[in-house]
Amino acid sequence: MIHVFRWLARLPLWLSHSLGWWLGWTAFLLSPRYRRKFVENTAQAGYRMPTVRGAIGSAGRMVAELPRLWLGAPIVCEWDNDSSVDRAYLAGHGVLFLTPHLGCFEIAAQAVAARYFERYGPLTVLYRPARQAWLAQLMLQSRDRPGLVTAPTSLAGVRQMIRSLRKGHAVGLLPDQVPPDGMGVWSPFFGRDAYTMTLSARLAQQTGATVLVMWGERLNGGRGFRLHFRELREPLPSDLDAAVAQVNREMERLIRECPSQYLWGYARYKHPKGAS
Known about the structure:
Blueprint: H1 2-8, H2 13-30, H3 32-44, H4 49-52, H5 54-64, H6 66-71, E1 77-80, H7 83-91, E2 95-98, H8 105-120, E3 123-127, H9 133-142, E4 148-152, H10 155-166, E5 170-173, E6 184-189, E7 192-197, H11 199-207, E8 210-218, E9 225-231, H12 240-257
């Protein structure tokens, strides 16, 4: 499989995205469970199919672009509101980048690390190893690049991220991932309670890091990506539950910028075993 990945990494981005579009629609049409989850989640957010139909192909593009992102030549990125990133780093308290499962979050981490590493140190990203041994090895190799450091989803990984922020470095994670039981709280997400990680809010509260929300937009025709950065509408409150709720609202705000590139088939509302 690694040899297949290396071959796919040579494809131009427009071709990878074209193949991904077919992959996304094939999965949607052949999997009733995935299709039902997609429809339920979009309806929960108040969207009709014409608005979010593009997300079906986008989900496949997310998979098909990985070989190029992990093993291929660099890809052009445009930057939107990168002055907010400069200000966050200059504040000197560390930068906490939060992104939902929207667009290409892989390129967002790579681009930030490459641009700011020499001046401000590495970007540490939360990392959950794949279950397949070959894929886990490939992921580790692909993310072993200058300026990008991975932290495991464990207590040791949390401590690693805290140390990084206190050094004035940056950390990135996806706060709309469903955490294990005991590592989250129930909080509204598009009007329905979802089990939501507390890690992002705790990191900000414990370190005083500047929080930015971001996402990587896929441009049409394989032209690359555009990175969007947004400052929080208001500082995170000291109350943990309120802070988590605000993080969810910030994620909703980003998703509504481009609902056609959100991963609506993700089981966002699943009930972790043992959670009440």
